[in-house]
């Protein structure tokens, strides 16, 4: 499992890339870094590239992910695009949980689609 969190000055987005298992403990690490960039730069636009990630947590752990993200500094009004490739069914529950808890999250098949959505303010 590996991940990266970078701010792309050109696009104004925070880009998160996760390869391997997406667990609650990994989400906490990633969210802390995203929250730090959000607070430091005022950026509220995030692309989460999960196209090479696997969601392996139990339903209860997935349900806790939005709360953990917020505790680590990720604002619930932050606009987040989840890039999942053609694996929408694998991440549908995750997207639904975040949306139902008041987060602005949407799934996309490609980074380009995600960028277009994020640019719509």
Briefly, what is this?
This protein has helices spanning 24-41, 59-71, 88-100, 111-119; strands at 2-8, 13-22, 45-55, 79-83, 104-108. By secondary structure, the protein is an alpha/beta fold. Helix 1 (24-41) packs parallel to helix 2 and helix 2 crosses helix 3 (88-100).
Content of β-strand: 25-35%
How far apart, in Å, are the first and last alpha carbons? 33 Å
- Across the major sheet, the strand order is 1-2-3-4-5
Q: What is the tally of beta strands?
A: 5
Give the overall pLDDT as a whole number.
Answer: 93
Low-confidence stretches: none
CATH superfamily: STAS domain
Structural class by secondary-structure content: alpha/beta
State the share of residues found in helices, binned by percent: 40-55%
Assembly classification:
single chain
Order of H and E elements: EEHEHEHEH
- The count of domains is 1
**Helical segment count:** 4
Radius of gyration: 13 Å
Globular, elongated, flat, extended or rod-shaped: what is the shape?
Answer: globular
Largest sheet geometry:
5 strands, mixed
- CATH architecture, by name, is 2-Layer Sandwich
CATH class: Alpha Beta
According to CATH, the fold-level topology is: Transcription Regulator spoIIAA
């Amino acid at each position: 499992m590996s991940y990266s969190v970078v701010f792309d000055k050109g696009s104004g987005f925070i880009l998160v890339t996760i390869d391997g298992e997406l667990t609650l403990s990994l989400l906490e690490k990633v969210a802390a870094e995203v929250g730090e960039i959000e607070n430091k730069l005022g950026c509220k636009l995030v692309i989460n590239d999960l196209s090479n990630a696997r969601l392996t947590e139990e339903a209860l752990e997935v349900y806790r992910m939005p709360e953990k993200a917020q505790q680590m500094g990720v604002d619930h009004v932050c606009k987040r695009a989840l890039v999942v490739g053609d694996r929408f069914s694998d991440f549908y529950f995750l997207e639904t949980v975040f949306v139902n808890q008041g987060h602005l999250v949407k799934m996309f098949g490609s980074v380009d689609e995600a960028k277009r959505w994020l640019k719509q303010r």
